[in-house]
Fold this protein.
Amino acid sequence: MGKGKGEKDVANIEEEEELDRGTWDNQCDFFLSCLGYAVGLGNVWRFPYLCYEHGGVTFLIAYLTMLLVSGLPLFFLELSLGQWAGKGPLKVFGRMAPIAKGLGYGMLMISFLVVIYYNLIIAWTIYYTFAGFTSELPWTYCGNGSLTSQDCYQRDQARECANASNYQDTFWNKQCTPVSEVCEFFNMTLSDTDLVESFNMTEATCNNGTHDLNLNKVYRRISPSEDYYKRTMLGLEDDISWSNMGGLKWDLVGCLAAAWTIVCLCLIKGVQSSGKVVYFTALFPYLVLFILLIRGATLEGAYEGILFYVNPTPEKLEGLMNVKVWAAAATQIFYSLGPSFGGLITLASYNKFSNNCHRDAILIAFSNCATSIFAGFVIFSIVGFMANQAGVSVEDAIASGTGLAFIAYPEAVTQMPFPPIWAFLFFTMLITLGLDSQFTMVETITTAIMDQWPKTRAHKGKVVIGACVAGFLLGLTCTSRGGLFMFSLIDWYASSWGLLICAVTEVLLVMYLYGWRNFMDNIEEMGIRIPLVMKGYWLLMWMVVTPAVLILVFVMTFVQYSPAYSSSLLPGLEEKYVFPGGIQGLGIIMSFAPLMIIILGALYQFWKRNSQGKSTSFKAMTSPNEKWCSAVADKNKKRSGVSNVTYMKDDVAITNYKYEHGM
């Protein structure tokens, strides 16, 4: 029997759909991709620092609580939205409510800004990985080249100088130097008092006219690892500022190109290729963390570090009364799980319609938190060792962010047996942690392009290459000698207020404009059966608690706002170079760009509908349009050649889908 125009073989249609958009090969690909996206660099370098800053176990309690009231509800909401609609964020919100057309673009803007600087971190780790392929790590000792600071200080080198001069010399200005010359350089005199003990050796002191001062009080000593990070790797110089960013640092440009090449090759075939790469990138960090934990636990001082991390003292528990602890925990869980970037909706949009995303959301969210806690044990065991070696308390040895990853830890591995091995493991782990998150954010951008212009799906590889080339070119601004300032500016502002605005808008849109009943019906249409108690929990969180928490965090970010700053080599501003007012203004514009996009999107939809003669009433602008339907109904629409299938007709489409798949 012949086939009419609207009739096609089902197998051929399914092949066309897979060619058009693509799907995960299996459920494990999706699960590991989501896990890799959620578990990122922040689990290793930001979470431990926040634990220290807010009392260890006190922060853990607040962190787990905020997981339940803000992170997990948003995580499940976005997975459900993406899976039911089978579209990325650009299409989902514009079809759900025309007035929210700009919300997806706002999320895309955030991901776009983040991918620019996030891949630079991967480039830094690539730099360190290759730099560590030597018998002696280049940041072990202070060098004598032009890139070494005169204030670089290494304990073993200083001890050699002291022993060779009867304790009258110290290591300063790249060589053994009489202490009297050091004192004179800083307008002081050599002290007449007896030598004092310092690091189990004797060292002369300087007198400022009233007091005798140890040399570490006379000037700020810089460790070899910090000197290497700032001067050798970043290429900072004494005159680098926003008004003089310096030229490109070509070795960093090469590392950035390598990072984008890796991302491009892993995403070249979409989720079919990235879904296989995550089997390594998502699981390898756990192997390294386990190895580092075993090694860290055997180091001297590890017990004190871990005890500081987990010991609940009455003073620490009193910190639960401090709203700053709860705001910090909410911020960390929010940024850790990654809602409102558009990434979760994108990943879920490639799911099978019947996938149990409810189970996945719970497992991934708790796995993410467990990883943070586990990483805390690893980091604090090493920090305890560093404190023991330096003769200081644990709280004085901890560092945050890039300081922990590229200064504190590299210094710690130089004091371990076989340092190059531990350096290689650590930086390879950082690369894999960063790549997973980068994959999803770039996939969000490319999916948006292909959803907006479906004809580009036939040229998926070219879309990915184009996105990666654009990301590389824009990232060049961060590879100049003053690139750290641009990096810090984007990191400070790109995902702060704008991200929270998108999150609040999203949850209020789904719950109150689209309607919680419709949303719960959509979840049931996918065959997900949620127990009554869990339904009550989800609705309570979505409709009341989660929006309230997000608004609280938004307010606290304003209350605790401080201008963006970075480390530098400018005299007197080495630790805190606060950026000029005009640069701060650029950052604020960057932060509120998603809000401006949401408003402009609403105005554009109002103009467009008005010009097409469609209703622009509040109800019309806040109700699903004629294209709003489930992923299954969308496939049926293409089968039958019908141009519009509304969400009101999804019950028939779902019934057909379940019948075809034996559900």
Q: What stands out?
A: DSSP finds 29 helices and nine strands in the chain. Confidence is low (pLDDT under 50) at residues 1-19, 196-201, 642-649. The beta strands are 169-172, 175-178, 189-190, 196-198, 201-203, 206-207, 212-213, 565-566, 577-578. Residues 626-660 form one domain.
